[in-house]
Amino acid sequence: MARRTVFFCSLSFCALLMVAYSIFSFTTSHQRTLSDNMKFNSENLMNTLDPFLDLPRNFLGAKLQRLQTKKRLFHVALTASGSIYNGWQCRIMYYWYKKFRDMPSSEMGGFTRILHSGKPDSLMQEIPTVIVEELPNGMAKDYIVLNRPWAFVQWLKMARIEEDYIMMAEPDHIFVKPLPNLALEDTPAAFPFFYITPAKYEEIIQRFFPKHMGPVSAVDPIGNSPAIIKKSQLEKIAPTWMNISLQMKSDQDANKEFGWVLEMYAYGIASAVHGIKHTLRKDFMIQPPWDVEVGEKYIIHYTYGCDYTMKGELTYGKIGEWRFDKRSYLLEAPPKDLQLPPQGVPESVVTLVKMVNEATNNIPNWGTGE
User: Of 53, 138, 246, 285, which has the fewest Cβ atoms less than 10 A away?
Assistant: First the structure.
């Protein structure tokens, strides 16, 4: 009886083992299938990204990509001339970069001010700076912005940049929140400017981007800034960007039509020459006073003057009763505690002035005449 009980228990134990093995096999197989399907779906999501639209068609794909990989840090780089006007903007920009750099959602890495004056200035100890040479006499042709691509060419050759990505920025950019890496692997991200219209100037564009290289639509409506791009891609683009900028400046038609934004067109053309398209990110930044809300944007670009009546009415083109215009401070830095805009002025302008005031009140040794 005891032997039969033992035999029955053995059979029962074997049966349990078989059931457990079946469950394990089914579960493992099922998990493998789920895993394969999840991988397949994730890849499919990534395949729906479209770099020619304002945003990826399936933004979830971009979020999944970030979740599946470690932080992809980018190095923030901006060019500077060494003027007082340029300097105070750099100080404010660097203040807000430091404020947001180490926050959880940030992928900001190091920071470099590329000083293309060829000599040190008073901000060397305050802001990480690399000195490069300006273009030889006469080459800039009274267009100081031509020094920008030349500065990047030099910096990329001489600097040891740890990050795989570079963000090209400008002194009059203010970060309003932590900035993640908006680039998607080999597809850089850039802000689309409404006034950069390659199709409108097809004949001129084709002088520098011939038909056999592709259609004019291959040229993105962007400048070099703001943009986040792989370092290896920028190393290819930068010399071409510089050469095309110089060629366009010497072209009478290009110089006349493109004017102050000539170098921006040159960057878009240089990218197209190397077959590089950018994801166009309208959420990269806002430009007051035309953009009235900060919303979910990352940067305020204060290139335009903001003029208002004391009733909060915009008087663009005419000096307002209340105004903030960076060009009011060409020879000295703005004072601390600028007057806030009157009631009725858009949030974007109010936020801009408040952020300038916070920076100037916290940056050591801030004062007019700097």
Answer: 138
Name the residue ranges covered by the structural domains of the chain.
63-283, 286-362
- Residue 122, exposed/middle/buried by CB under 10 A (0-12, 13-18, 19+)? exposed
Residue 274 CB coordination number (10 Å): 11
Do the beta carbons of residue 193 and residue 223 sit within 8 Å? yes
Cα distance between residue 189 and residue 331, in whole Å:
34
CA distance 353 to 341: 8
Q: Summarize pLDDT for 75-120 with one digit per residue, the tens.
A: 999 999 999 999 999 999 999 999 999 999 999 999 999 999 999 9
User: Which ranges in 48-83 belong to alpha helices (H)?
Assistant: 59-68
Question: 């470690």: which residue's tokens?
Answer: 70
**Exposure letters 216-250 (e unless 16+ CB within 10 A, then b):** bebbbbbbbbbbbbbbebbbbbbbbbbbbbbebbe
Which tokens hold the place of 48?
């729906």
Quote the tokens at residue 153.
Answer: 């060419």
Q: Write the DSSP assignment of 215-239 as a string of letters.
A: -GGGS-S--SSSEEEEHHHHHHHHH
What is the DSSP track for 158-227? H----SSEEEEE-TTEEE-S------BTTB-EEPPPTT--GGGGHHHHHHHS-GGG--GGGS-S--SSSE
Strands 189-190, 279-280: pairing is parallel
What is the per-residue pLDDT across 143-200, written as a single tens digit (0 to 9) for each?
899 999 999 999 999 999 999 999 999 999 999 999 999 999 899 999 999 999 999 9
For 213: left if phi > 0, alpha if psi spans -120 to 50, otherwise beta; the answer is alpha
Any idea what the Cα angle at residue 109 is, between residues 175 and 370, rounded to 5°?
Answer: 55
Count of CB atoms within 10 A of residue 69's CB?
Answer: 10
What class, spelled out in words, does domain 63-283 have in CATH? alpha beta
pLDDT in tens, 275-333: 999 999 999 999 999 999 999 999 999 999 999 999 999 998 899 999 999 999 999 99
**Pair type for strands 108-115 and 74-80:** parallel
Burial (0-12, 13-18, 19+ Cβ within 10 Å), 153: buried
